[in-house]
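Anyone opening a protein record will find just a pair of labelled lines. A complete record is shown below as an example.
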Amino acid sequence: MGQNWVETETAGCDLGDVRLNRRLGAMLEALGERPGKSLPTAFQDWSNTKAAYRFFSNGNVSEDKILEGHFAASALRIQATDGPILILQDTTEFSFKRSAPEKIGFTKVSTGRKLKEGRYQKHAVCGLLMHASLAITSDGLPLGLTAAKFWSRAKFKGTAALKRKINPTRVPIEQKESMRWLDNLRLSTELAGAPERCVHVGDRESDIYELYCLAEELGTNFLVRSCVDRLAEDGATTIARVMAEVQSSGTHEVRFRDAQGKDHRAVLSVRHATMTVRPPIGKQRKYRHQDLQIIHAEEFDPPVGRAPVIWKLITNLPVATHADAVHKLEWYALRWKIETFFRTLKTGCRIEELRLATADRLANCIALCCVVAWRVSWLTMLSREAPEASPAAVFTEAERRMLELSTPDRKRQEPRNLDFYVRAVARLGGYLDRASDAPPGTTVIWRGFSRLADLVEGARIATPPPDTYG
């Protein structure tokens, strides 16, 4: 991949040292050329690999400084687009096996095999958590990360044990891990610079009353999947009871794939209503009620062996008609884009195979890989949304030459646009490119980039300097 993209994603970075800034760009380019390879393979020799390890352990380097340039580039891409920007929020876990796990921290308590005395074996899982916000267009094109937070936990009691001691609705939001949802909403809204254009989309974990209030304060929008049957109207009823009396406004069909890749089709009955939603009893003095829109979509006749599709959404966006409700359901369906990003980061960049020993070093490396994973996701969607775009901004001349040479004869007559070269990369990654095949996905593209880097390097080595033979 060309150097231009590296300059774009690092232009806003300042690590306090010109040499560190230069090293950051070189490392990002190396990881971008060979996503998924081990650090020694990506950096090619011991000198560069040792320099990378020093970079990750440098006290002046942190994940937020590494991502600063990418955030700035994301803001520019947001400003260059029109229409609503969906900002997808979610959390993912990275698990590691270490002889000294306390240097990294823990993510959760896992239940293992059953012991002789009848109890189950439990152990704390070594790892890091990352909470990220990814900005996309309403067509699904990833514009980049707008916020990211990394953390781990000390050894802890299970959350169920904690809940028995204290009612979590009484704990101030500032003392909870769920504060990350509010932090990312605030940071992303400020970065985008146009709060009215932003729609913050989250799963059931983001159903936090304080998030509704913060969105109102900032003048921005949210669309989250509800997990709490909140008090509604005058406080004597709940959202579920009110919605039970609402008639269906129509149906909506969704198509999706399950974890095994099998295609499914579901017809949902859609109901929507506007109502007053009230804060939890323990917080009614601190927060005022909100007038929000509720959308419930439930599958008519689910097949045997599959759980029914049920979406319960809550939003401060206007929902006056069935078409409005369907529009919001389609936006929520785009939330899977951040899952694809996480999968690319974990599987494509093989984060959990990193051998770095401390949480800080791992977070620095993951931050760098986040930019690589975003780029693979962006290029995958860009080739679908704008196949006629010029490839020169994406591929160097040497890369284009190698891709042209690797293209089968029957394909060489096609226009040499962005789609042509992206498909060529995908074929290097195992994409069959048959007429009936879906467009290439992130997996074959990240594999293809690694092979492309080897082809370009091989061609460079095989081409003697001009004066070799006098």
Summary: Residues 225-324 form one domain. The first helix runs from residue 3 to 10. The longest strand covers residues 120-137.
